[in-house]
Design goal:
Radius of gyration: 22 Å
CATH architecture of the largest domain: 3-Layer(aba) Sandwich
CATH class of the largest domain: Alpha Beta
Number of helices: 12
Number of strands: 8
Strand order of the largest sheet: 3-2-1-4-5-6-7-8
Structural class: alpha/beta
Bound molecules: NADP nicotinamide-adenine-dinucleotide phosphate
Strand content: 5-15%
């Protein structure tokens, strides 16, 4: 299978490197199309496949085309490639908020897989959810899932609408985690630690708590019970969180992200 990645930015490079490093594809099977000349030289130096500057030179050679440009660049891109594509090609979009119907219509194609990765994909720890049109065969879907898995875990969702919820939960999710960490770092500094000490305390707590969680069968509530003893310090903090309805507020924030994803998808 020949793969063309369109857009040699953060995500395009992430996928190219992940595919090559995990030996799922060879360099000779991989092409990258990037419109900015300065960037093509940089891409060539990465040695992750043939680098192109013109859509007409590479599109027809590809079995799978990965759309990794910014959503606002897609319409212009589609105009430059519409004549060169064919209905046997599979299109994998990682563009946030661009609907399958928009891609099908702009390119006059049927086989579309739409995915939503997140930032940790850049270090192989990503969470990517995806869905596919009926025209994509099981074999093609499995091939694409194998490719996506080189950047972390994958989840197939039946309905495209759920990708908006994925955007709100795992897409934006890393920022929620950093927000919580930042609040704890600031609090630790107010308690008397310098910045690096506060960061060490908080980072290692997050990392250790996550490793513990991943290595056990216990859920979050059960782990909370293990940390919080009756009348102790953790219970005092948790009671304050509960009185201030922090869980409901987090839920409301994530819901706002979903509302915004739906709104952006319409525009
Ligand atoms: N970054 C993330 O963590 C993340 C997570 C989930 C989804 N996504 C999605 O991934 C996509 C790419 O994001 P990114 O962060 O990788 O963006 P990026 O770094 O800006 O990369 C996009 C690249 O595509 C190039 N490009 C634009 N139009 C083109 C065209 N017609 N032909 C060839 N190349 C073209 C851009 O060149 P110029 O810069 O010169 O215009 C740029 O190098 C976005 O749609 C985003 O929604 C990203």
């Amino acid at each position: 299978m020949n793969i063309l990645i369109i857009g040699g930015g953060n995500m395009g490079i992430t996928y190219a490197k992940a595919f090559i490093n995990s030996h799922v594809v060879t360099r000779s099977q991989l092409m990258i199309l990037e419109k900015t000349i300065g960037k093509t030289d940089e891409l060539k130096s990465l040695n992750v496949g043939e680098v192109y500057n013109e859509a007409g030179d590479c599109i027809s050679k590809a079995d799978l085309i990965i759309l990794a440009v910014k959503p606002q660049d897609f319409m212009q891109l589609s105009e430059s490639m519409a004549k060169a594509v064919n209905k046997n090609q599979v299109f994998l979009s990682i563009m946030a908020g661009v609907k399958i119907s928009t891609i099908k219509k702009a390119l006059n194609i049927d086989k579309v897989i739409r995915s939503m990765p997140n930032l940790p994909a850049q270090i192989g720890q990503g969470m990517t959810a995806f869905t596919a049109t009926d025209a994509v065969t099981r074999h093609e879907q499995a091939l694409v899932q194998n490719l996506l898995s080189t950047t972390g875990k994958t989840l197939y969702v039946e309905k495209e609408d759920l990708l908006d919820a994925v955007t709100a939960v795992s897409g934006s999710g890393p920022a929620y985690v950093y927000y919580f960490m930042d609040a704890m770092v600031n609090t630790a500094m107010q308690m008397g630690f310098n910045k690096s000490e506060a960061e060490l305390l908080v980072m290692q707590t997050f990392s250790g708590a996550m490793s513990l969680y991943q290595q056990s069968e216990l859920n979050c509530k059960e782990w909370i019970e293990k940390v919080a003893s009756k009348g102790g310090t953790t219970e005092a903090a948790l009671r304050s969180f509960s009185e201030n309805k922090i869980d409901e507020r987090i839920g409301a924030g994530v819901q706002k992200a979903l509302d915004r994803a739906v709104e952006l998808g319409k525009s």
